[in-house]
Specification:
By secondary structure, this protein is an alpha/beta fold. The chain folds into four domains: 125 residues, Rossmann fold (3-Layer(aba) Sandwich), CATH 3.40.50; 157 residues, 3-Layer(aba) Sandwich (Rossmann fold); 93 residues, Helicase, Ruva Protein, domain 3 (Orthogonal Bundle); 71 residues, Homeodomain-like (Arc Repressor Mutant, subunit A, Orthogonal Bundle), CATH 1.10.10.60. The protein has 20 helices and 16 strands. A five-stranded parallel sheet has the order 2-1-3-4-5, sandwiched between helices. The chain has a five-stranded parallel sheet with strand order 7-8-11-6-12. Strand 4, helix 4 and strand 5 form a beta-alpha-beta unit. The radius of gyration is 28 Å and the shape is elongated. The two termini are 40 Å apart.
Length: 508
């Protein structure tokens, strides 16, 4: 462990802190001015920096700026005999860990330094985890089996079928297979076959010639051409339309394909990795998936474990996602208390790793304070049998994976915090009239009675449009924040905004 640096022009303060910390078996290094400490920072760094705010020459605030620019995770405690509001505000705005007013109680000062020390050691540990880890995190035995499989497949071009529940990280595994393969220098192209309308999917896969259909004003390269020499990842392959399955089988069989409207065969030098959360064997039995395509894809099968099967990884993943979310939002990372981590580890989390990531995004935005306790978690998580949240609980709206949100109607109202008042927002308040599901049933009855075609699509678009517009109002048009509040991905909300013609959204 590195020493604690003490910067103060008052020799007596330096001496008192040195002796007090020595009794705690903590090493120290002292400087009489900020310039000496700044010069030493070019060659070394402390575990914690304790600095006076007003000294001859450079001030403690100037030193704080230098430290935060070079080492943003280093805790800095600012001391001052001038306990005024301006100093306190400037200290925290500069990113200080804490503000210590002189004269101070020595025991409290040592306790504060110990807290900063724990924070520093935690930051160092998290950085080490990030540096040592690859694309996928996991220490559980089930994940070690996955890592071994990726290693064995690293020099192979064989087709791989990745199976597992939604949210288990199938695309991450596909990217890892590509990264460690001989094709790593070539493109990795991903396509979610369930997210593309049926009439556009063929063009997305194989491209089209100019004039092939209305709106085809120029020749377009499809995903197979874009992935030439590299890897094409086909997610949710179980949802691919039956007629397109035939074309895909032909490419996998002889390596040739045609653009839509084209007559010249094109050769595909592409490794295909497919993924699905569905039971393909059952879809074959039901006549929804070609048996010959199934056998062509199922050369090597890699099953990803659910989060329930690797609960010991939840604390590691939680810390990782909290740090990642904080970096994306430009804020300090939240910390989970040990009881809160244990609580999360007992939850079912049916949305798996994606649900945990969305939860960490919610915590970063909504949880009060830097240390998150059980009571700070979303109310939906605390509503298990007996109020302990340990049993089965409804999947909250922020936690739904994008694949389960599209086209799904969830009951209940969302709790929104506004000016300290909790307002229950829904289509209709329970006490004010019929529930929104009753109104939905009535609307569906009217449309069906009138012979309205594609009722599901019409009501689904209204439902999605209402949700997204409401979320954008609460986030003042900030698209990324709205996605976090809704529990969907940024790409998903961008696509929905375009499809539904929603105005008023912005990136930040």
């Amino acid at each position: 462990m590195k020493p604690i640096w003490i910067v103060d022009d008052d020799e007596s303060i330096r001496w008192v802190l040195e002796k007090a910390l020595a009794r705690e078996n903590l090493a120290t290094r002292s400087f009489s001015n900020a310039r000496e400490a700044r010069l030493m920072l070019e060659h070394d760094t402390p575990q914690v920096l304790v600095s006076d705010i007003r000294m001859p020459g450079e001030s403690g605030l100037e030193l704080l700026q230098v430290v935060k620019a070079r080492h943003p995770g280093l805790p800095v405690i600012i001391m001052t005999a001038f306990s005024d509001l301006d100093s306190a505000v400037a200290t925290f705005q500069g990113g200080a860990f804490e503000y210590l007013a002189k004269p101070f109680d020595l025991d409290k000062a040592v306790a504060l330094i110990r807290r900063a020390l724990e924070e520093s050691l935690r930051e160092t540990s998290d950085e080490q985890v990030g540096a040592d880890s690859t694309e996928i995190l996991g220490q559980a035995a089930a994940m070690q089996d996955v890592f071994r499989a990726i290693g064995r497949l690293s020099q192979s071009n064989v087709t791989v079928l990745i199976t597992g529940e939604s949210g288990t990280g199938k695309e991450l595994v596909a990217r890892a297979l590509h990264k460690h393969s001989p094709r790593a220098a070539q493109p990795f192209i991903a396509l979610n076959t369930a997210a593309i309308p049926k009439d556009l999917l063929e063009s997305e896969l194989f491209g089209h010639e100019r004039g092939a259909f209305t709106g085809a004003q120029a020749t377009r390269r499809g995903r197979f051409e874009q992935a030439e020499g590299g890897t094409l990842f086909l997610d949710e392959i179980g949802d691919m339309p039956f007629d397109l399955q035939t074309r895909l089988l032909r490419v996998l069989s002889d390596g040739h394909f045609y653009r839509v409207g084209g007559h010249q065969p094109l050769k595909a030098n592409v490794r295909v990795i497919a993924a699905t959360h569905q039971n393909l064997e059952q879809r074959v039995r039901d006549g929804l998936f070609r048996e010959d395509l199934y056998h062509r894809l199922n050369v090597i099968r890699l099953r990803l474990p659910s989060l329930r099967e690797r609960r010991e990884d939840i604390p590691l993943l939680t810390r990782h996602f909290l740090a990642q979310s904080a970096r994306q939002l430009g804020v300090e990372a939240k910390r989970m208390s040990e009881p809160a981590l244990q609580f999360l580890s007992r939850l079912e989390l049916p949305g798996n790793v994606r649900q945990l990531e969305n939860l960490c995004n919610w915590i970063t935005v909504m949880a009060p304070g830097q240390t998150v306790e059980i009571k700070d978690l979303p109310p939906e998580l605390l509503q298990g049998p007996g109020g302990d949240g340990a049993g089965s609980q409804p999947v909250p709206s922020w936690a739904l994976a994008p694949a389960t949100q599209e086209g799904a109607v969830q009951e209940g109202a969302a709790a929104v915090q506004t000016d300290g008042q909790t307002e229950r927002q829904g289509v209709a308040a329970a006490s004010a009239g019929p529930s929104w599901t009753s109104l939905l049933e009535s609307e569906a009855n009217q449309l069906l009675s009138a012979g309205q075609p594609e009722v599901m699509d019409a009501l689904g678009r209204q439902f999605e449009s209402t949700l997204i517009r409401t979320a954008l109002r609460y986030t003042h048009g900030r698209k990324n924040d709205a996605a976090i509040r809704l529990g969907i991905g940024r790409n998903t909300i961008t696509r929905k905004i375009q499809e539904l013609g929603i105005d008023g959204a912005r990136e930040e």
